[in-house]
Design goal:
The protein has 463 residues and is an alpha/beta fold. It has 18 helices and 11 strands. It has helices at 3-18, 32-46, 88-92, 95-103, 132-135, 144-158, 168-195, 201-212, 219-241, 260-266, 281-292, 296-302, 324-336, 338-343, 351-367, 392-403, 411-420, 431-447; strands spanning 50-54, 67-71, 74-81, 106-110, 114-119, 122-128, 310-312, 319-321, 383-385, 424-428, 459-462. The chain has a 6-stranded mixed beta sheet with strand order 1-2-3-4-5-6, with helices on both faces. Helix 1 (3-18) packs antiparallel against helix 2 (32-46), helix 9 (219-241) packs across helix 10 and helix 16 (392-403) runs parallel beside helix 18 (431-447).
């Protein structure tokens, strides 16, 4: 049988089901199984590897797209289904669809009979299978040209390449969007557990944090910190897994033992099949899907300190330093929550100022205290940055020390083991910057020939 004949049969069966109920009885959900069947059949004809996942009804204040479309677990896009009488033009400009557009550039919108394909937030193709009055007309038969047009629109939607990211800024934005959804769910679930006295794993983690890290930590603050740390923890897992696929089951294996706090939070992944957490599982799976489809080589290159450079500005007065992890986290925060950034005072000292301060202190150590090697003296110098943020000052100290040591002298390995990993400390109380500090300092050491071994860690603490 030709594909066109098969498609006609699929749509005829679909129309038959729509006509089996009065128009007034058709709700957003009443014919969802028949829409699902139509989409499954078209996807199967297009490519047997395409997966159409019908998402269950979600929390009313959180929501989620009705269908997720993927190929070999890589996200292609989303489908949102509305009531048959819904005005799709109003839906296109709604807050709900605005949220979904953040998830993907590829969205298909339908009210069962009208179909709109959106790319990068804008409608680019629109087709009508029939009209509402046709549904109640027993003699009505589908126009083959309209069937062909709708089928072509759906196939165009299915033909889009999966989400695959190579630029750090694009990854930061993708993580921020999903981090926000995760935060909002965690906040609602924590409040529910508290109000109903049904404290589960999530509330237990909150209590541990209040006891051991910050006694005044609120539920909202913990939900925010946890969501950021979980998405960054999965990013860390993927960086360590390299070409191996990261899943809910193995993510913990790829987090270094020095990240005990993050390992504890990632243990939460084991809870996602429980009823109270099932609604948030899709968000975590999306983060994993993005991680597993990264252009890891290009991304690591963009976050590598081998590309870290100093250049003079036009007026030859300022030194401009590129710290990719600062820009990565700033991009994340800008997309995640600008208000939170301001409220928490999450601002970063400009790199030229950091460079000046560290060099000035190094000069004082040498000239005023007679410590010839300055920061590099492992016998006389201990450093504590008590509000380290993402570790920008500590990184500058690492760089300052390395500049004094010839690359092939053999002294660098000794100074890393006996000084950088023993005498340079940072304290931070926000979890996400703490995580970034570990990532960037570890990456800097890796780029300079020292990959952290089992039992080694940079001395940055959450406190």
């Amino acid at each position: 049988m030709e594909n066109s004949d098969k498609n006609n049969i699929y749509f005829e069966n679909y129309l038959k089901e729509l006509k089996s109920h009065k128009l007034s009885d058709i709700t957003e959900h009443s014919h969802r199984p028949f829409l699902n069947e139509l989409l499954q059949n078209i996807a199967k004809e297009k490519n047997k590897k395409i997966d159409v996942l019908h998402e269950p009804k979600r929390h009313p204040t959180l929501g989620a797209p009705d269908f997720k479309i993927s190929i070999t677990e890589s996200i292609i896009g989303y489908i949102e289904n509305k009531k048959i009488e819904e005005d799709l033009d109003k839906t296109i400009i709604s807050d709900q669809l605005k949220k979904y557009k953040e998830l993907s550039d590829n969205i298909l919108l339908t009210n069962y009979i009208e179909w709109v394909w959106l790319k990068k937030g804008e409608p680019i193709q629109r087709e009508n299978l029939c009209y509402k009055t046709d549904i109640e007309n027993k003699k009505f038969k589908l126009d083959k040209s309209k069937v062909e047009a709708v089928n072509k629109l759906i196939n165009n939607f299915l033909s889009q390449p999966p989400i695959g990211l190579a630029r750090a800024k694009d990854l930061a934005n993708a993580l921020a969007v999903r981090g926000r959804w995760l935060r909002d769910f965690l906040r609602i679930e924590l409040l529910r557990q508290e109000n109903e006295h049904q404290e589960g794993k999530l509330f237990g983690l909150y209590s541990i944090f209040r006891t051991n890290i910050h006694v005044e930590l609120t539920l909202d603050e913990f939900a925010d910190a946890f969501s950021q740390t979980l998405v960054y923890g999965l990013f860390l897992a993927k960086l360590n897994a390299l070409n191996e696929k990261v899943s809910l089951e193995n993510a913990k294996r790829f987090i270094p033992i020095s990240f005990e706090l993050i390992k504890e939070l990632v243990d939460f992944l084991d809870e996602l099949d429980k009823d109270e957490y099932r609604e948030v599982k899709w968000i975590v799976e999306e983060v994993l899907s993005i991680m597993n489809n990264l252009n890891l080589n290009a991304l690591q290159e963009s976050l590598s300190y081998r590309n870290w450079h100093r250049t003079l500005s036009k007026d030859m007065k300022d030194i401009i330093l590129k710290d990719p992890y600062v820009y990565f986290y700033e991009d994340f925060l800008a997309a995640y929550d600008k208000k939170m950034r301001k409220a928490k005072g999450v601002y970063y000292t400009p790199p030229p100022v950091v460079n000046f301060i560290i060099r000035a202190i190094d000069d004082i150590l040498i000239e005023k205290f007679g410590i010839k090697e300055g920061f590099a003296d492992r016998q006389k110098v201990t450093v504590l940055d008590f509000a380290t943020g993402t570790g920008t000052f500590l990184l500058e100290i690492f760089e300052n020390i390395f500049e004094k040591l010839p690359q092939k002298s053999g002294k660098r390995e000794l100074i890393v083991k006996e000084h950088l990993l023993k005498n340079i400390f940072g304290f931070e109380y926000l979890i996400a910057p703490y995580t970034i500090a570990h990532l960037k300092l570890s990456q800097f050491l890796t780029d300079n020939g020292h990959k952290l071994e089992k039992g080694e860690r940079v001395q940055v603490f959450l406190t």
